[in-house]
Structure formats: C-alpha cells, structure tokens
Amino acid sequence: MKVSFSDYAWGAGLATDLVNTSPLVWKSAGEMLTGPDDLTAFLDEHGLPGATPTDTDLRQVHRLRDDLRTVLEAGTEDETAAGANALIARGTTAPVLERDSEHRWQWYLTTPTGAPLTTQLAVATGTGLLGTLRTLGHARFRPCASPTCDGVFVDTSRAGRRRYCMPELCGNRVNVARHRARRQTGTGSAARHR
C-alpha cells in the first residue's frame, strides 16, 4: 500500500470511521464489525477493496481500533504525534518522493508487499492523523457533541465546525430531539400556527 502525505483527510476519515464502529460509541447498536464480511464492506466503502479479511484480521483490527481511539483522545499535540508515529512505525519503509498521476511530486509512505491488513490500516490512519495535526492542529481532534454518543472524530472540514462523529446520525438525532422538545413545550413552529 502507498499512502500520500497530501491526502491526510482520507486517512483521518478512515481513522474516525474505524474508531466509531466500536460498541463503545453507540451502545444500542453494538459492535459494527462483527465478522470478516462486515470488515470487507468497511474496507470497500473506504476505497480499500480486494482484501479478504479473516477472523484473525478482524481481531487485529479491533485492537487497532482501540489504539486509534487512544490517539484520537490524546490530550496534547505531543501525545497525538507520538501515537500516530507509533502507528506508522508498525510497518512502513522510509518516505519516498514520487510523481503522482498529474506528474506533481508527492511524498508517500509505503508498506511492504504482503503486509498484514492491520499494518496497512495503521500506516494509512497514522499518516492521516499526522497530516491533520500538522495542517489543521490538535483542536480538530474532538469528542462527539451528541449527549447520547461516545464517539470521537477528526474534523478535516474546511470550516472546522463539525460537532458530531457521524453528522448524518448523531446530528440528525440531536436535531430531532430538539424539534420534539420544542413541540412539547409549544415553542415550535407547529405551536405558533395553531
């Protein structure tokens, strides 16, 4: 696998999404990666097709997910950098400078041919986390703002105002709860139009 330093948003998004498959995030949903087929679907969704994970790969990915959460929750920039560097050190060779598809020079990290799936994921996510830390800062590593979620995420958006680990889920649930609360108290638009 070859990971570009420039594409840190992809690696940070991969880290966020992987961490948030844990049963610690949405306790009512439980484990999101229950078997190799779930892991295969996750990898396909994130542009890593072709892998045929085993039960051993799944257990290793669960451990990697815990390590990633520790990095995302690190209290300081130095702790975040150390954790992300440790992820990369699991299986990368020295950085290489190569031309990309548009003939621009780019820095890449590569994993050895045949490296285990978790090694590839560790390098991809570690690179994304370091790129985010360097480019956007430690303030972009956040807990989810939803009171019913224990997720964490890396905000790589341009504006940097993201509040939820899964905006389409956590954000919508918060908005629905607020809407229902307004309707119950009679302050919502439905109450004004009566």
UniProtKB/TrEMBL annotation:
Gene3D superfamilies: Jann2411-like domain. It comes from the Bacteria. Transmembrane segments: none annotated. Pfam families: ABATE, zf-CGNR. This is CGNR zinc finger domain-containing protein. Residues 140-183 form the Zinc finger CGNR domain.
